[in-house]
Amino acid sequence: MGDANGAGSNGSGNGKFLNPTPMLDELESGPWPSFVTGLKDLAERTKKPMLRGVMDQLEYSYQTRMGYWKGGLVTVKGYGAGIITRYSMIRDKLPEASEFHTMRIQAPPGLHYNTESLRELCDIWEKHGTGLITLHGQTGDIMLQGIEADKVQECFDELNQKGWDLGGAGAGMRTGVSCAGPARCEQACYDTLEMHEKVMKHFVGAVHRPEWNYKFKLKFSGCPNDCTNAIMRSDIAVIGMWRDSIQMDESAVKEWVDENGMEKLVNEVVSLCPTRAISLKEGGIAIDNGNCVHCMHCLNVMPKALSPGKERGVALLMGAKSTLKVGFNVGSMVVPFMKMETEEDIEEFIDLADEIIDWWDDNGLDHERLGETIERVSMKQFLDGVGLEPSIDMVSRPRDNPYFKTKY
Amino acid sequence: MGDANGAGSNGSGNGKFLNPTPMLDELESGPWPSFVTGLKDLAERTKKPMLRGVMDQLEYSYQTRMGYWKGGLVTVKGYGAGIITRYSMIRDKLPEASEFHTMRIQAPPGLHYNTESLRELCDIWEKHGTGLITLHGQTGDIMLQGIEADKVQECFDELNQKGWDLGGAGAGMRTGVSCAGPARCEQACYDTLEMHEKVMKHFVGAVHRPEWNYKFKLKFSGCPNDCTNAIMRSDIAVIGMWRDSIQMDESAVKEWVDENGMEKLVNEVVSLCPTRAISLKEGGIAIDNGNCVHCMHCLNVMPKALSPGKERGVALLMGAKSTLKVGFNVGSMVVPFMKMETEEDIEEFIDLADEIIDWWDDNGLDHERLGETIERVSMKQFLDGVGLEPSIDMVSRPRDNPYFKTKY
Amino acid sequence: MSSPERNWKTVESGPYPYKKGLHPVMQKNYGKWKYHEYPQPGVLKHVAESGDVIYTVRAGTPRQDSVDFIRSLCDVADKHADGYLRFTTRNNVEFMTPDAEKVQPMIDDLESKGIPVGGTGKTVSPIAHTQGWLHCDIPATDASGVVKALMDELIEDFRGMNLPNKVKIVTQCCELNCGGQGDIAIIVKHTRPPRINHESLSEICELPKVVARCPVAAIRPTVVDGKKSLVIDEEKCMYCGACFGACPSMEINHPEYSRFAIWVAGKNSNARSKPTLMSLVAHGLPNNPPRWPEVSAVVKQILEAYREGGRPWERLGEWVNRIGWKQFFEETGLTFDEDMIDNYRHARTTFNQSAHVRF
Amino acid sequence: MSSPERNWKTVESGPYPYKKGLHPVMQKNYGKWKYHEYPQPGVLKHVAESGDVIYTVRAGTPRQDSVDFIRSLCDVADKHADGYLRFTTRNNVEFMTPDAEKVQPMIDDLESKGIPVGGTGKTVSPIAHTQGWLHCDIPATDASGVVKALMDELIEDFRGMNLPNKVKIVTQCCELNCGGQGDIAIIVKHTRPPRINHESLSEICELPKVVARCPVAAIRPTVVDGKKSLVIDEEKCMYCGACFGACPSMEINHPEYSRFAIWVAGKNSNARSKPTLMSLVAHGLPNNPPRWPEVSAVVKQILEAYREGGRPWERLGEWVNRIGWKQFFEETGLTFDEDMIDNYRHARTTFNQSAHVRF
Ligand code: SRM
Ligand code: SRM
Ligand code: SRM
Ligand code: SRM
Ligand code: SF4
Ligand code: SF4
Ligand code: SF4
Ligand code: SF4
Ligand code: SF4
Ligand code: SF4
Ligand code: SF4
Ligand code: SF4
């Protein structure tokens, strides 16, 4: 059960407000910032009973190795989603946190903040809720954690007036995520932030009022490095792509070689290209761009010398999801290239996404994600259904069984 | 429909015995030896009506683009398999080949013949059947094609007295195949011929009297080059393997390099090793044997310099089959190494094979091959069932889904 | 819940406007960045085509933050970064400044507040994790706690840049895997079938939905004490807990029998190799709060073997791919067992369908 | 069929004894071979540890041989090879002699008989094939004919050794694929559902067996004219013909609608890469006896592209793997279409689950 002595060493946990939490206190030691210390300090300062209750319940979970929350339904006017409702299963025992709801708030694309907005958010939240915030949830929401049902509407109203809106939950569009993108990254092949904002504004109704078969996620990564994990975690992954040749600054290549040596060039660049598209040439390198698969590796190692081409846009990969039922699904290449420079390009994406979601909503089963529907119904029917052309880019190899039907 | 003029140019087809076969005659031209010419000459010489009938029917098939054989049941005393029975569906029209059965005969392991045996076989076959022989069927049988039902027993009796026996068909053990093996190949890691002979003698009853769920095939390749295609086409593929280090004759390596040059050494040996286990060393090569996956490539390119190690035996891969139902199944590694030097080693293999077949026959569904049963029931249960230890060699990677059940 | 009379309209605005959050130098050079460098661990230097430079200082957070903590981050931003800050997709916070001089004072300020600087380049960046006992309704553990305990031990790999490549770790409190794939993943694995609470089942759950949720069709309708209920075919059930996600009466969580499995070689990026799913390499580890030492030990074993054997730029899975899984188990000291052989859909595609084998 | 009184016993001897078929030099050096060389196309030279040498001359056969043809092979063996010969797993015949002097006369003798010598090393060895109209009960074509017509065109690739590596071609007369996987495969593909012969069905077939044979459960029992029969759900049926193998009343073969598909990149050996299954690259080719020119044309397109682009030792599939499938289609002039995207079991594992793409 551990000795609480080592804990509290950060100076917290000595207040009078909280009940003892010996097991949690064990998580106060060590160099990594402790969420326990944060919670305790917050509780001691604000004296919010809900915080004391939630600490007690968490301590009880640590002791019994079981969770004690159950779901429910809370929402705000006109919305059907955005609040994750939690009631305690042990409220008889620990009544102070009998409710502990979370408000999911859509963060700014790229998670770029200024301190003014953020302080505003903190103030409103401290006023109505516990003051505990997750930055950010795995889907990219700001999660305001710990509020009572009857305070949700007023909290939301106040937030909304400051420009904040609720994120997704349930069987609808979910909150989007985008990488830092063109704001600070040289690899960005399209404007992840702008696209994220525009697209999610289009789907805002579907975020707030879920009515599809199941959830649907979009993530926006500026290049195939995929810093938002889009390919593994979104029904449509929007990934930056270029179609022409990698831009090479020959003198910067030379500089790199001077600095790092030929051995490193061979071992860490040439040899690691997955398709061996890079060869040595005149003390520098030559890239066979027709054979480049846009993996990003050489650009990552030599960012000063190599950059994505000039004809830039996005690739769309579809069907990623987590383990449920079929096991993890990785997103599959469906649209290898699409321009993404103008408003119209974004509109075109939105049209396609609408088409895809309609198809999925019509053809999918209950609680079936896009990737599952595509696999069950077949890629061919999916492409037919949404009006896309089949292409060799969609497969790692053509089929190996004769089980297809074509008439001639 | 083609002009028969070009045909018959080999001098055949001018006899009086046969009816005109204009389409087939088109297959007499060209440099590759023609089975049509062979058939025609045979028919003209022997004047066997069955041969005329079968040519007529084949010509009719070429004209109508349809086949006209149907199955039936013919066998020899005490046997349940080995004859592939064919009755004509158009016997009214073309009565001379109303029957056209095939006798499958087990060839010698490695397909090594002397002319005396082969001539004997030809003579007996010409006496009772058409004189048409397939050397060999895809499963390795000698196929004596074209005999009437009432001649089968006497033909078999005569063959059997000369040491020939029927091969497999139906839901039992099938005829085995083995590569040239130690008789003429330096790569052979075990005695394919001896093992083939011993093992098939053990299973001879199962070959002749099929009574399992479905067919079961064994093939014996002396090394991972797999010249019998065992890995794709046998329920248990027996493939030669070594466990210690590749034997290297350093002076032969030098010789090779002198003759072929360093460039070829790098491009055709070093660079093509799948695990990059080969590096250049002092003008020759060094092999990291712990990282060698026994692919055979370097040994194939430099057979004089490199040979399989001294500790030799077999690997067993299980579950290969053709397309039916599940699509092609490639054999999977189940036993990475097993000594195969003595009678006892062969006995041990036979015991294991018996065990496996029993398990499959108990757990398999009707018309389900071993590979399908393993996949349906799970590798784990298969291993438990036949008493084998799981090993990392069996998989290309550990599972990626959490759907397993273990209790602690 | 009744709210007072409203004299405003809800604006369904969607994402908070990002433009407000861009440092002026980033606004100016938007889409015109040329390259980046790593001047020191925890610091990025991005150079624009214009010649402008922006430095980023990256620091760790507990993810479950208090407003006080966030306000103190704002203080840092106001003081050293012109009032701007951002968060990464991996719960780090980043402060941007065009001024090289401000970097070190900023780092000192952060560290003095107990906020560690690091996580750039070839490091262990903070562990992506999920809700756990603090909030979720189905967790078997507390992801935040597991992560805090482990980060305490890995902090030098967060601060340094001495690994072959980035190591992305994830931790999740049930098999739904809200944290996705990682180079190393720590995930709850149940080891007993759910215990059905027949009392509550028909009252609080839609029976057909629960039946439909089971991946292996192990749940059948039945009647218990005259009430409609469900029964589990324990032969089929593989303890995934999916039914529990649909219905709290399918009690899968258990203090002893809900355990941990460790997975490796997940990769999301397309760099060099295609993205890969992670593979199971250890399981049956106890769920041992408050510091889960058994879990940390295994993760560290794996990390050390990778540090030792990986070549520059090789992600963990790429390293394994090169040396082979057999050697992975040897070098980490972990043990391969029969449960690691896939027996689910597509199982066959993970078999070694070749004679390729290492001895 | 009644046979006369027997005064002997059947000996269930299994395989014919191989020892009788071994050339004395092979018997002497059994298991003691050291290496091989290719002195010229069609000839192998194996050298034993003892220093003994055996030369092998390899020659093509039609596979469906007459006893006359076989006897003439025996003549060659008697004259030049001490009375021994063997066949390869690919229907070639081989004659072995320790005497270098005998090689050329033997070759001349064979060629003069119209028996081509070749097939060793980096060649197109004869096409493995199946029964066809000559004997099988379910074929949609005549494999022997397709093969003869094609080998006429490929004979120089049989004789020469000017390909990047061995090219193994297979041809099969229905989708059961008795000929297995190959670098290039020519396989019947039906394009309409079976027509059911309700007359004969219940008389000659076991209905449940037929139902069970269908991979997609497209067959259901029904009653037609008072007789038990079957009906096919034509939406589900994908024309595989498996039911026809179980029951001749499920008439799948059709002169017009049974066509050909071409597959590439199958590989059985473990050399370098693991064995691979072949992939569909063309279909809808007509079944056009007696010489099937459309089939030969496609095979030659593929072969030429491979000859052009393949590097030494690269098997056809390894070449494709290096250049990518997109380039394969470009270089062969074939067209990728939607049917080539897998939609069967495990389909997902063939999708491009990455952003890797070539333009
Ligand atoms: C800030 C952030 C994006 C954001 O919008 O928040 C980011 C930023 C950068 N990433 Fe990333 N990546 C970020 C999450 C990711 C993720 C997702 C994740 O961590 O969950 C991935 C995919 C992970 C995976 O494969 O599982 C990711 C895969 C990469 C890669 C590919 C690495 C590889 O070799 O596989 C690069 C290339 C590189 O390292 O040079 C990259 C490169 C970069 C660069 C160098 C891009 C640039 O030129 O600015 C940035 C600095 C990286 C660094 O810290 O070394 N970034 N990057 C994220 C920081 C996370 C953190 O706090 O640790
Ligand atoms: C809060 C969060 C974890 C976190 O701490 O960050 C979370 C929490 C839950 N997830 Fe998740 N998921 C969260 C991101 C994800 C992700 C990651 C992502 O979006 O990138 C995934 C994997 C990707 C995917 O979508 O598949 C994910 C896959 C799931 C699944 C499995 C879906 C599947 O198809 O396999 C479920 C189960 C379900 O939907 O029935 C699920 C269900 C849940 C539920 C609603 C559990 C339940 O059914 O009651 C959890 C509510 C917890 C709570 O109390 O707040 N959560 N969940 C993440 C959302 C925060 C946010 O909005 O920012
Ligand atoms: C005679 C035969 C075995 C037999 O018992 O009959 C045989 C004999 C040899 N094979 Fe083979 N292979 C024979 C069928 C096969 C097959 C099966 C087939 O053809 O259906 C394969 C697998 C094919 C596949 O992968 O689809 C096969 C894959 C190999 C390989 C691997 C080639 C590769 O790089 O993938 C080698 C290695 C090599 O070529 O050096 C090889 C090597 C050899 C060697 C060099 C072995 C030796 O040292 O004696 C022999 C001479 C090969 C040559 O002709 O170049 N043998 N070899 C078969 C001749 C077939 C024919 O008439 O063409
Ligand atoms: C004769 C032969 C083709 C040839 O011309 O060489 C052949 C001919 C037939 N095969 Fe085969 N198979 C022959 C080798 C193969 C092989 C290759 C092998 O053994 O290496 C395969 C692929 C490997 C495998 O076993 O899967 C093969 C896979 C099949 C299948 C599909 C099995 C599957 O599980 O997918 C069937 C269908 C069935 O068994 O119901 C089949 C069925 C048949 C039947 C019995 C068709 C039928 O159901 O009526 C054919 C009888 C033809 C006839 O008139 O003689 N044949 N069959 C081969 C046997 C000759 C011999 O004994 O030497
Ligand atoms: S995904 Fe690409 S563009 Fe976006 S931050 Fe990562 S490296 Fe930069
Ligand atoms: S981006 Fe990747 S595939 Fe393209 S050249 Fe660079 S390393 Fe090779
Ligand atoms: S399988 Fe190996 S041992 Fe047998 S003939 Fe081929 S190369 Fe020689
Ligand atoms: S046998 Fe294959 S894996 Fe082993 S060293 Fe030679 S080329 Fe490499
Ligand atoms: S991983 Fe499971 S327990 Fe944890 S937050 Fe997600 S759904 Fe809840
Ligand atoms: S735990 Fe999983 S397998 Fe077991 S009954 Fe529930 S859903 Fe089905
Ligand atoms: S491939 Fe089909 S048609 Fe040809 S022999 Fe085999 S079973 Fe008969
Ligand atoms: S052809 Fe194939 S899919 Fe169609 S009914 Fe027959 S077995 Fe089923």
Automatic annotation (TrEMBL), chains A, B:
<dbReference type="InterPro" id="IPR017896">
    <property type="entry name" value="4Fe4S_Fe-S-bd"/>
</dbReference>
<feature type="domain" description="4Fe-4S ferredoxin-type">
    <location>
        <begin position="283"/>
        <end position="311"/>
    </location>
</feature>
<dbReference type="GO" id="GO:0000103">
    <property type="term" value="P:sulfate assimilation"/>
</dbReference>
<dbReference type="GO" id="GO:0009337">
    <property type="term" value="C:sulfite reductase complex (NADPH)"/>
</dbReference>
<dbReference type="GO" id="GO:0020037">
    <property type="term" value="F:heme binding"/>
</dbReference>
<dbReference type="GO" id="GO:0051539">
    <property type="term" value="F:4 iron, 4 sulfur cluster binding"/>
</dbReference>
<dbReference type="InterPro" id="IPR045854">
    <property type="entry name" value="NO2/SO3_Rdtase_4Fe4S_sf"/>
</dbReference>
<dbReference type="GO" id="GO:0050311">
    <property type="term" value="F:sulfite reductase (ferredoxin) activity"/>
</dbReference>
<dbReference type="InterPro" id="IPR036136">
    <property type="entry name" value="Nit/Sulf_reduc_fer-like_dom_sf"/>
</dbReference>
<dbReference type="GO" id="GO:0018551">
    <property type="term" value="F:dissimilatory sulfite reductase (NADH) activity"/>
</dbReference>
<keyword id="KW-0004">4Fe-4S</keyword>
<dbReference type="Pfam" id="PF03460">
    <property type="entry name" value="NIR_SIR_ferr"/>
</dbReference>
<dbReference type="GO" id="GO:0016002">
    <property type="term" value="F:sulfite reductase activity"/>
</dbReference>
<dbReference type="InterPro" id="IPR045169">
    <property type="entry name" value="NO2/SO3_Rdtase_4Fe4S_prot"/>
</dbReference>
<keyword id="KW-0411">Iron-sulfur</keyword>
<dbReference type="InterPro" id="IPR006067">
    <property type="entry name" value="NO2/SO3_Rdtase_4Fe4S_dom"/>
</dbReference>
<keyword id="KW-0408">Iron</keyword>
<keyword id="KW-0560">Oxidoreductase</keyword>
<keyword id="KW-0479">Metal-binding</keyword>
<dbReference type="InterPro" id="IPR011806">
    <property type="entry name" value="DsrA"/>
</dbReference>
<dbReference type="GO" id="GO:0046872">
    <property type="term" value="F:metal ion binding"/>
</dbReference>
<dbReference type="InterPro" id="IPR005117">
    <property type="entry name" value="NiRdtase/SiRdtase_haem-b_fer"/>
</dbReference>
UniProtKB/TrEMBL annotation, chains C, D:
<dbReference type="InterPro" id="IPR017896">
    <property type="entry name" value="4Fe4S_Fe-S-bd"/>
</dbReference>
<dbReference type="GO" id="GO:0018551">
    <property type="term" value="F:dissimilatory sulfite reductase (NADH) activity"/>
</dbReference>
<dbReference type="GO" id="GO:0016002">
    <property type="term" value="F:sulfite reductase activity"/>
</dbReference>
<dbReference type="Pfam" id="PF01077">
    <property type="entry name" value="NIR_SIR"/>
</dbReference>
<dbReference type="GO" id="GO:0009055">
    <property type="term" value="F:electron transfer activity"/>
</dbReference>
<dbReference type="InterPro" id="IPR036136">
    <property type="entry name" value="Nit/Sulf_reduc_fer-like_dom_sf"/>
</dbReference>
<dbReference type="InterPro" id="IPR006067">
    <property type="entry name" value="NO2/SO3_Rdtase_4Fe4S_dom"/>
</dbReference>
<dbReference type="InterPro" id="IPR045854">
    <property type="entry name" value="NO2/SO3_Rdtase_4Fe4S_sf"/>
</dbReference>
<dbReference type="GO" id="GO:0000103">
    <property type="term" value="P:sulfate assimilation"/>
</dbReference>
<dbReference type="GO" id="GO:0046872">
    <property type="term" value="F:metal ion binding"/>
</dbReference>
<dbReference type="InterPro" id="IPR005117">
    <property type="entry name" value="NiRdtase/SiRdtase_haem-b_fer"/>
</dbReference>
<dbReference type="InterPro" id="IPR045169">
    <property type="entry name" value="NO2/SO3_Rdtase_4Fe4S_prot"/>
</dbReference>
<keyword id="KW-0560">Oxidoreductase</keyword>
<protein>
    <submittedName>
        <fullName>Sulfite reductase, dissimilatory-type beta subunit</fullName>
        <ecNumber>1.8.99.3</ecNumber>
    </submittedName>
</protein>
<dbReference type="GO" id="GO:0051539">
    <property type="term" value="F:4 iron, 4 sulfur cluster binding"/>
</dbReference>
<keyword id="KW-0004">4Fe-4S</keyword>
<dbReference type="InterPro" id="IPR011808">
    <property type="entry name" value="DsrB"/>
</dbReference>
<keyword id="KW-0479">Metal-binding</keyword>
<dbReference type="Pfam" id="PF03460">
    <property type="entry name" value="NIR_SIR_ferr"/>
</dbReference>
<feature type="domain" description="4Fe-4S ferredoxin-type">
    <location>
        <begin position="228"/>
        <end position="257"/>
    </location>
</feature>
<dbReference type="GO" id="GO:0020037">
    <property type="term" value="F:heme binding"/>
</dbReference>
<keyword id="KW-0408">Iron</keyword>
